[in-house]
Amino acid sequence: MASVLSYESLVHAVAGAVGSVTAMTVFFPLDTARLRLQVDEKRKSKTTHMVLLEIIKEEGLLAPYRGWFPVISSLCCSNFVYFYTFNSLKALWVKGQRSTTGKDLVVGFVAGVVNVLLTTPLWVVNTRLKLQGAKFRNEDIVPTNYKGIIDAFHQIIRDEGISALWNGTFPSLLLVFNPAIQFMFYEGLKRQLLKKRMKLFSLDVFIIGAVAKAIATTVTYPLQTVQSILRFGRHRLNPENRTLGSLRNILYLLHQRVRRFGIMGLYKGLEAKLLQTVLTAALMFLVYEKLTAATFTVMGLKRAHKH
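Structure (tokenized):
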């Protein structure tokens, strides 16, 4: 039984990783626009398509895909860890019974904590690489010169200390509610639909994946903005011009954002984020469900626990 559960969790993890990589690749330019809007406070363009046009005009046609490989690598590792942990914990707790919304939320939260602690260094590095070479409107941003993933790790540890690889960990830990809320709504909506029909259609999976992610993203977006700024870690925001890298600056960043742009400043880039994350999540869940179903069919196995 344990080996079957372990195998099932592995299938879910691989399918989740493949689904996330596929979806992120398709919608990657939207994530580029979102990150610029979050980090570059003086950028005047507020709409996603205008920011993308500016990036292409100033930095070249392939600029929206800058940093694709480190982002995809981090996303693949992150989703593998999350899906494996989520499904392993759920299998152990539910043990063949029907799951509940509360259990999905708790399991999603625990899986998120494990994921954050293991993969934050990868996200710090990919944020730096994704923004390297960008033309910023904000003169308070310190430029970087990394040759690749390994060099970025080396320079960050050498210049900022190994703890800098976990910049943004505190808001990231708070943000584990994002996937937890997402999976809670996704699993709940899926259970409701399965009460009315034997199986879900592709459109069903796409829509409930999109709805679940839209709710989770809107609720947690201000913390995502702070997380991006902390991970980038190249702002000079105090009188001594020291670079930002301390978790105690979270409240300061939120305050500064509201003071400069009003309460809506906390949601700067939300349009791009919703477009990217909702479409990405919807496509990811679609690929994930199809891949897991196909794998279990080919292997002649039934799922060891019910949704």
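The mean pLDDT is 80. The chain has one domain: 2-299.
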